[in-house]
Amino acid sequence: MVHDPARATPWSDTTSTESAADKRTLYRDLQQELAALIDGESDPLANVANAAAAIYHTLPALNWVGFYLLRGDILVLGPFQGRPACVRIPLGRGVCGTAAASGQTVVVADVAAFPGHISCDSRSRSELVVPVRWNGGVVGVLDLDSPVTSRFDAADRAGCEALAALIAGSIANLRDGS
Ligand code: SME
């Protein structure tokens, strides 16, 4: 599938996500559209920027979505949607640094209860951070913040892990400066 600006997309439609089935459909459509957006485009900055915008404008109840790129042992802010955010997060610090260091997705139902949570936006109440892997290593993270406590469930986790896999090659290239 190629990207067609005239086609209805998950981010241009008003989509109900009341049921688990609706949520799976939303993620499936978003994954297809993200694949179409980056298909044939080699510029990693363009692709990662579009990924942040597509996710932010599709999934409901979010106040921030973006990527951090792992450079050495520091996560450095990459393309995002939302308010300006913390630029550098050491590996192992905060939710993002914890996910990157462990290589495991971290779902935080209540950020106030997560020791070491780094507050970049006072509206954030819950958070989902997915490590982005490429060639067997972590190259960055996908971070989603919500103003709603317990916003993220297992379907969000699986859906965002699939999105992270789709954009991983672009994240790796962007990190390497190519
Ligand atoms: N809360 C994150 C920091 C990044 S912002 O949410 C955009 C953390 O604890 O790592």
H/E element sequence = HHEEEHEEEH
What is the arithmetic mean of pLDDT? 93
Q: Name the overall outline.
A: globular
* Annotation, overall tally of beta strands: 6
Biggest sheet descriptor: 6 strands, antiparallel
Find the CATH topology of the domain at 61-176. Beta-Lactamase
Heterogens: methionine sulfoxide
Q: Could you give me the name of the CATH homologous superfamily of the domain at 61-176? A: GAF domain
Relative helix content: 25-40%
Report the radius of gyration as a whole number of Å: 15 Å
Structural class: alpha+beta
**Terminal-residue CA separation:** 26 Å
Identify the notable features of this structure and list them briefly:
single chain, 178 residues, alpha+beta, 6-stranded antiparallel beta sheet, 36% helix
How is the topology of this model organized?
Layout: H1 20-38, H2 44-56, E1 64-71, E2 74-82, E3 88-90, H3 94-102, E4 106-108, E5 126-134, E6 137-146, H4 154-176
Antiparallel strand pairs: 1-2, 1-6, 2-3, 4-5, 5-6
Helix pairs in contact: 1-2, 1-4, 2-4
The structure holds methionine sulfoxide (SME).
Residues 64, 85-86, 89, 94-97, 117-118, 120, 124, 127, 143, 145 line the site of methionine sulfoxide.
